[in-house]
Amino acid sequence: MKKVSILHTGGTLSSKVDYKTGGVVAKYTDKDILSMFPELREIVKIKSRLIRNMSSDDMNFKHYNLLAKEIFKELKNSDGVIITHGTDTMHYSAAALSFILEGLDKPILLVGAQRSSDRGSSDAGLNLICAAQFIKNSDFFGVGICMHEGMSDENCLILPAVKTRKLHSSRRDAFKVVNDSAIARVNRYGKVEFLNYTKREKGKLELKLINEKLKVGLIKSRPNMFATELKIYEKYDGLILEGTGLGHFPITKIDNFTSENKRTFDEIKKITKKIPVVMTTQCLFGRVNMNVYSPGRELIKIGVLGNQLDMLPEVAYVKLAWLLSNHKKEVRELIGENLRGEINHRIKDEFL
Ligand code: GLU
Fold first, then answer.
1. Best mutation site among 12, 24, 118, 169 for ligand 1, i.e. most ligand atoms within 8 A of its Cβ?
2. Could you report the per-residue pLDDT of 76-133, keeping only the tens digit for each?
3. Full-model pTM
4. Å from CA of 197 to ligand 1 middle
5. Residue 25 has pLDDT above 80, yes or no
6. What is the CATH number of domain 216-334?
């Protein structure tokens, strides 16, 4: 039997309704979860530990490092690791683990739930069972997310850690791949169907942690912006811009209503002189192309990075922090390099 470690961090999967407040709280321990889903022990040999019992909204870089260190320890004696995790920021954690665990040669699957485990409609059981079945029945290695494929309890998908985002606030199939496709489909009986998986060369596992003191910003462009909103980032170490469309910000003074835009441009220019600033798109699908319109070209000229990339804003955010921590001198070159599958230099026709 394959050996799998389950590390619990909390979220809805570990929660139940608190009848005093009526709200859902992270309560279950690792032991409770295993006793709720005894089938897991029939699929793989399980070792389980509680790392935290928290909502993923409260996580930060320190939790990513802690989790990566715990995974590193577990991998010495396991064939794979399942992380139970809150769904709200699961795609950030998945990206962080992908970057931190360089040369990973075993499967790490993040699993969450949209309905707490004490409810009949909970998706926790199927997501956990599918993750265990996938580790048992495949030779996949790397970081993936295992969640429901659709509304029914039939299949789960294994989703790529750096190309996936939570795109629905409540549905059980909330996680969708952006500009790419799922790695595999798996069911509770262990049927695995690979959909899009190119095996990388196996490396030597190395922990490349994120500097916990770093301050990286992520700001979304919108109409009626003020330059002062950006000013705070002068003191940060890096900044991700979530532009509209192809990668735009309100930076052009076109009439007497738009004087603020000139100030916004000057502020971005000031910041790019101090720290790396990377453009992404809030459209999510498609890529940034700052060559098409003149303001975009102005942004390239002042040093805004990210042109032609299809990196999700959240992934770019984690990647920038990781690069600043591990490759400080090469941030500008490496931000545009596909290190973990986060960039498609060619997007398949079906996503264009
Ligand atoms: N906000 C909580 C979290 O992300 C609960 C949501 C969930 O787990 O689905 O941990």
1. 12
2. 999 999 999 999 999 999 999 999 999 999 999 999 999 888 888 889 999 999 999 9
3. 0.95
4. 28
5. no
6. 3.40.50.40
Question: At which residue do the structure tokens 């910041």 appear?
Answer: 271
Q: Which atom of ligand 1 is nearest to the CA of 113?
A: 9
Task: Please report the atom of ligand 1 found closest to the CA of residue 56.
Answer: 10
Look up tokens 């295992």; give the residue: 146
Distance of CA 56 from the midpoint of ligand 1 (Å): 6
Domain 3-207 and domain 216-334, same fold? Reply is yes
Q: How far is the CA of 85 from the centre of ligand 1 (A)?
A: 8
Domain range summary for the chain, segments of one domain joined by +: 3-207, 216-334
Quick one: tokens of 349? Answer: 């026709």
Return the ligand 1 atom nearest residue 10 CA.
Answer: 10
φ, ψ for residue 191, nearest 5 deg: -75, 125
Q: Which two tokens stand for residue 20?
A: 């005093």
- Do β-strands 3-10 and 80-84 pair in parallel, antiparallel, or remain unpaired? parallel
Summarised one tens digit per residue, pLDDT across range 158-184 is 999 999 999 999 999 999 999 999 999
Residues marked active site are found at: 12, 87-88, 166
**Residues with C-beta less than 6 Å from any ligand 1 atom:** 11-12, 55-57, 86-89, 112, 114
Tokens 């809805």 sit on residue: 12
Which architecture does CATH list for 3-207? Answer: 3-Layer(aba) Sandwich (3.40)
pLDDT in tens, 216-256: 999 999 999 999 999 999 999 999 999 999 999 999 999 99
Structure tokens at 192: 């695995």
Q: Report CA(62)–ligand 1 centroid distance (Å).
A: 18
Res. 13 pLDDT band, cuts 50 70 90: confident
| Residue keyed to tokens 């928290």 | 54
Nearest CA to ligand 1 atom 2: 55
